[in-house]
User: What shape does this take?
Amino acid sequence: MRGHSGIFPVKKMAELLNISRSRYYSWLTSPPCEHKRRDSELLELIKDIFDDSRQTYGSPRVHRDLGDSGTRCSRNRVARLMRENGIRARQKRKFKATTDSGHNYPVAPNLVNRNFIVPFPNKLWVSDITAIRTLEGWLYLCIILDLCSRRAVGWSMGSRITSSLTVNALSMAVMHRKPAEGLIFHSDRGVQYAAEVFRKHLGEYKMVQSMSRKGDCWDNACAESFFATLKTEEVFHRKYRTREEAQRSIFEYIAVFYNRKRRHSFLDFQSPEDYESQKGWLQYIA
Assistant: This one.
């Protein structure tokens, strides 16, 4: 009745619904019930968390954020409020493949064999390359993840997909993490990883190279998953005019949001930085 009071007379609507006008006016001036009031307050908190997550969080991550901020409620209640109010996390889309394994360089054995659980940092790094579309042309991104915490420890971007991408990303990772001898570096069989210049850098850092089996994306699933997340949560929702604009956006996503803030399901919904801090590792690896 309240929603149609500007169109139809209250008296007529009350007669049709077989209720008294006094009952309607009493309801109209009465305060909302406690449950609805609580839902309204909770919904505002959910919206704030959802927007702060770049509209990427579903109910499990939103519920975890609420709990950490001292708000107690059930996960089902959060899911219901998000569903009823059309609050949905961004969906994944397909993206361009970049691996070129048609070369004559040596291929390293697969030392990982899909064992993606690593108890300590700086023991196993995984890497991959992807392409980001801009109006100026493709921008290529090489990423290196520490598989222990899923933290992005090194990355590099450029207009050409060359070995300089992998070398620069590796140099950044080594500068920040300073790994000990024997770290396993895993990637696909792309020419940028198999080339002599890159293998030379791995040798200088005393790293052991590992490569996926030919045509098997599951052997490097963690790096593939990172790119899917990056593109779902950031890239696919922007139209980059230039490569420089895309670089700024991607840098901010990785360095500020992904590493420091974004909750990772594998890490019990902690961010990579919080996970490493909680384990007491930051003083040794940051």
